[in-house]
């Protein structure tokens, strides 16, 4: 979904115009996440992923899921990332390996 949104797939154009993808990344809501009790920020239907992954551009958007899964798109680098775990990340929320894995994938994908 994220690759199709920003880059297009199968020879088709991207599903989103650049300005639409940029709007998805803009923070529209700040507050306390009532599930985890931590400060959080959300864009339009997506998380402002770049807040949790500082190596991504400010235009990155995505969403985490149950068991520590994570998916996002970074239009500036053209990277779409998806990660699912086999086991639930206790006590919930982000899996401990997700940020280092996403950082390594981003570094490889953006290497000149």
Automatic annotation (TrEMBL):
Cross-referenced Gene3D superfamilies: DD-peptidase/beta-lactamase superfamily
Superkingdom in the source lineage: Bacteria
Protein name: Uncharacterized protein
InterPro entries in the record: Beta-lactam/transpept-like
